[in-house]
């Protein structure tokens, strides 16, 4: 993504890649949320969830996990 230029095609490619990244983060968060239901308060999992939600700009879920 860092090698993309400023052309319209590059901007479109950036948007596509950015959407793919966000989709992967959401899928990862779903799996980690399922894991927390089984494994409780695993700090590594909670930290990863906070990082994902922070990156996605999901402040509601970020705060929920932070206060878990």
Please give a handful of descriptors for the protein shown.
single chain, 3 helices, 68 residues, mainly alpha
* Helix amount: over 70%
Q: What percent strand?
A: under 5%
The number of domains is: 1
Largest sheet: none
The rounded Rg comes to 15 Å
Q: How far is the first residue's CA from the last residue's CA?
A: 34 Å
Task: Give the ordered list of helices and strands.
Answer: HHH
Overall structural class, as computed from helix and strand content, comes to: mainly alpha
Give the overall silhouette.
Answer: elongated
Mean pLDDT, nearest integer?
Answer: 93
Q: List low-confidence stretches.
A: none
What is the count of DSSP helices, taking H or I runs of 4+ residues? 3
Task: Kindly state the number of beta strands.
Answer: 0
Can you describe this structure in just a few lines?
It is built from three helices and no strands.
Protein architecture, described:
With 68 residues, the chain is mostly helical. The protein has one domain (8-66). It is built from three helices and no strands. Helix 1 (8-39) packs antiparallel against helix 2 and helix 2 packs antiparallel against helix 3 (59-66). The chain is elongated.
